[in-house]
Amino acid sequence: MKIAGIYLAAGKSSRMGKNKLALPVGNTLLGTMALKTALQSSLEKVYIITNSLEDLSWLESLIEHEKVSIIACPSAHLGQAESIKCGIRSAQTEEMDAIMVLLADQPYISIKIIEDIIRQLKNNPALQFVAASNQNIIKPPVLFSASMYPALLNLQGDHGAKTLLRGKNKGIGEVLTFSSRKAFLDIDTVDDYNELIKN
């Protein structure tokens, strides 16, 4: 089973006032933290979805990694759904059996979480998605089988893929519960960032 990651890195960082992915955290940069984890996992490929105008210097040497593909998404400013669709098109071209949606501003996501989700799909290939849950809230990463690509390509605006995990689709996937609140923190504001660099 060929599985790719779609690493969403095209956000406007509007609440931060600057490109949060380039902010320093110890001896690394915020945007590379979850990426390094994804690259160490069993994901076959990681599509980094960027705004086509974005400065990619935050990627540093990871831009050369054999698993990395940079996907410039000209419509990314229209919302997260557009970034996901750009990634799905690449996954279709490369005949990926499933994709995992990952957030670039979720620095503490662990290899264990990524691998537990992947293992669940591999052990139960009839599932159409496997999602993570923390504190009874579904959060990325979420893994979608290729059967969900058409629905993902119909997403609009900033709703992301979460809308596909509710209602009538609930029975076609599985949600795994993880207890670590820290693993699912996403860094959106200056306060979030200050909290991150304190720890």
State the main characteristics.
199 residues; alpha/beta; Spore Coat Polysaccharide Biosynthesis Protein SpsA, Chain A; seven-stranded mixed sheet; two-stranded antiparallel sheet; 5 helices; 9 strands
Concise structural overview:
With 199 residues, the protein is α/β, with parallel strands linked by helices. The protein has helices at 30-40, 80-93, 111-123, 149-153, 190-198, and strands spanning 3-8, 24-25, 28-29, 45-50, 68-72, 98-103, 129-134, 137-145, 173-177.
Describe this structure in words.
The structure is a single chain. The chain has 199 residues and is an alpha/beta fold. It has one domain: Spore Coat Polysaccharide Biosynthesis Protein SpsA, Chain A, CATH 3.90.550.10. It is 26% helix and 24% strand. It contains five helices and nine strands. The protein has helices at 30-40, 80-93, 111-123, 149-153, 190-198, and strands at 3-8, 24-25, 28-29, 45-50, 68-72, 98-103, 129-134, 137-145, 173-177. The strands form two sheets. The protein has a seven-stranded mixed sheet, with helices on both faces. Strands 2-3 form a two-stranded antiparallel sheet. Strand 2 and strand 3 (28-29) form a beta hairpin. The longest helix is centred in the middle third of the chain and has 14 residues, at 80-93. It is globular. The mean pLDDT is 90.
